[in-house]
Structure formats: C-alpha cells, structure tokens
Amino acid sequence: QVQLVESGGGLVQAGDSLKLSCATSGRTFSENALAWFRQAPGKEREFLAAISWSIQLTRYADSVKGRFTVSRDNSGNLFYLQMRNLKPEDTAVYYCAAGGTLDVTAKRPNFWGQGTQVTVSS
C-alpha cells in the first residue's frame, strides 16, 4: 500500500507563495496518479490538481488553474504543489492522494495522506 506524507504547510499572509511536498513510498503498479485536495472547515473535500506518476500529465481544478502548479521530482518519490498568490479562502487542510488513473484519482483516490494545514491571513 502506498504511503503519503504531506509537509510544508503553515501560516502565511495573503499574496504569499507556499510549496507543499508529498513524500511517497510503497507504490505499486496499481497507483499511477497523485492528486492534491483540500478541505476547509465545514466544507467538502475539494480537488485541486493531479499528475500522472510516470508521464507527468496534469489536471487542474478551474478554481486554481494558473495559480497552483503540481509537479514531481526526478525520482518519482516526491510530489509538490506550488501555490502562488495565496488568499484567505485558500485556508484549509491540504492532502495528497493516490489512485490508479488521473481522472479517477481526481474524483475518488484510493489512498490519502494525513494532511497539512495551510492558513492564509489577510
């Protein structure tokens, strides 16, 4: 079973940038995509971005396209979510997640990390 550990969250000011990391281990042939989600208090978990594990095909939610960027390093074990021009409404717990395909993982991933808190002050 793939294990995912997010890091990089914290308290930032509106307009700041922040880069989240997702360290992965235990990947099998069943996991071919990684996605980023967030969940604000009282709200549904929201898809943000996804990337194929091998070919780096990406997909973004319209709400963050052009402002957030998902990527992975050359090893394939570390994934990132670069967030620019953060806004107070970006405040949420951010999760990385893994699944079999890009499209499916963007909707219903199989595995989740523990999450990292991002708080954006005005």
What does this entry look like structurally?
- The chain is mostly beta strands.
- Helices cover 5% and strands 50% of the residues.
- The chain contains one helix and eleven strands.
- The strands form two sheets. Strands 2, 4, 5, 6, 9, 10 and 11 form a seven-stranded mixed sheet that branches. Strands 1-3-8-7 form a four-stranded antiparallel sheet, with no helix packed on it.
- The longest helix is centred in the last third of the chain and has 6 residues, at 102-107.
- The termini are far apart.
What is the rounded distance between the termini?
Answer: 40 Å
β-strand amount: over 45%
* Multimeric organization: single chain
Report the order of strands and helices: EEEEEEEEEHEE
Class of secondary structure makeup: mainly beta
What is the number of helical segments per DSSP (H or I, 4+ residues)?
A: 1
Helix content: under 10%
| Rounded average pLDDT | 95
Low-pLDDT parts are none
The total count of strands amounts to 11
Rg to the nearest angstrom?
13 Å
Tell the overall outline: globular
Please outline the major beta sheet.
Answer: 7 strands, mixed
Nutshell version of this structure?
This protein is mainly beta and 122 residues long. 5% of the residues lie in helices and 50% in strands.
